[in-house]
Specification:
Layout lengths: L1 H20 L14 H10 L12 H11 L16
Length: 84
């Protein structure tokens, strides 16, 4: 039975070499650049020196300050998230 085991070993090695030849030289090179959208979003939302700072309208600032001054027990009203 030793020759049968040798043949199986040769077939297995041949299959491994064949499959290794089919591997892409750079795995994932053909995929879209995942992570670029996250990096772009973070860059857009990060203040850079020299960027213009958008003004905070009086009513929205007053509402935010009122919300921060409420007790921590949730006794106050949650600030609204509507955009001006």
């Amino acid at each position: 039975m030793a020759p049968a085991n040798g043949i199986r070993l040769l077939v297995a090695l041949g299959a491994i070499l064949l499959l290794a030849g089919c591997m892409a030289p750079r795995p994932g090179a053909d995929l879209p650049p995942f992570g670029d959208s996250m990096r772009h979003t973070r860059a857009v939302q990060t203040y850079q020196p020299g960027d213009e700072v958008p003004p905070l309208h009086g009513a929205k600032a007053a509402e935010a300050m009122h919300g921060y001054r409420q007790p921590a027990g949730g006794g106050g009203q949650a600030p609204s998230s509507s955009m001006p």
